[in-house]
Amino acid sequence: MKILSVVGARPEFIQAAPVSRALRQRHHEVLVHTGQHYDYRMSQTFFDELGIPTPDYNLEVGSGSHARQTGEILIRMEEVMLREKPDLVIVRGDTNSTLAGALAASKLHIPVAHIEAGERSFDRRMPEEINRLVADRLADLFFCVSQKAVRHLAAEGIHTRVHWVGDVMLDAMLTNRLLARERSTALRDLGLSPRSYALVTVHRAANTDDPERLGGIARALNAVEENVIFPVHPRTRRAIESAGIQFKRHVRLIEPVGYLDMMMLEENARLIATDSGGVQREAYFLGVPCLTLRDETEWVETVEVGWNCLVGADPEKILQAWHTFAPPAERPPIFGDGHASEAIARHIDAWSTPDNAGKAF
Ligand code: UD1
Ligand code: UDP
To answer: Does ipTM exceed 0.90?
Structure first.
């Protein structure tokens, strides 16, 4: 079977590695990079480090407004799909690349599989919520990270071809953890010892595009008495500069890091504070307490089991949790067993057998 996989943003590259490996055992995969992320540190570094196959196409759409970026991907993706005529298109998560990939395929009557289906924040002001709602309307095969996502789909009337497979992010981490320990020099380069610092990431529009929220997060970081390592997303760097925010010396703003360095920075942090979906889950996999710099999260299970604390962007709330948050000893395996990619490949195999052919329509 010919499978066209769509990737465009940082977490999609990281997930592409284990999924491609599993799919390519039995299928022909055409990998399409939309070009949504394009800086070396936001894109190529992951391909180099993780052995992701070189994309067959790079649509080079670059940045733009939501309509422009999504529209450009849609137009360029349609051409590729018409040329390649895939039997299945795989999209992942909730980016503009996900939305455009799912829409282009559906309009051409190509079945769509959605990895990370059923996640919801129930906040339609988040661009990602719109992207995942639409992708799930259009998809034919649904691969869910958790049972909660299966329930969300059921509540929206989606019951068939829904599979709980676990989290491909966990597959990526387990595959690369030893390699990260061997190869990463991040701790040494930054002069850090384990548990002597906190790791921070911020990139959500709700935080970067609202100077009050970004300023609130900055005030909290400036007030802690601990080293803070902050790899800054390009969008956040621009926002910090245009809001004229200054950080004290203990808050070290660095360029975005590669995945192996990020693993090591996460694993050795005393605390993680983030608005990233991927980083919240990785904190949980690694057993590092996490403060989420948002008012809600898709990853509610991590909050329910006591390992993640929602603090929003209010400096007092952030500081209070920063000093007192203490997760329990138990960390149940809510994100599966680290073999989500193989499970996805098995479900696709079963779906593609002659007996099942056409049932997605
Ligand atoms: C996107 C996804 C978000 C995901 C995140 C992962 C959407 C709507 N959002 O958000 O779900 O969590 O990726 O990181 O798809 N930029 C650069 N260089 C790059 C990439 C971006 O400078 O290589 C800057 C540009 O100024 C751009 C801005 O960052 O306008 C935002 O990039 P974009 O891809 O639109 O959204 P993200 O915030 O990265
Ligand atoms: N990440 C990375 N380098 C960084 C910041 C994040 O490798 O400087 C990784 C992180 O470990 C996780 C993924 O990027 O695997 C998450 O991406 P991001 O936070 O951009 O998006 P989200 O998960 O929120 O969609």
So the answer is: yes
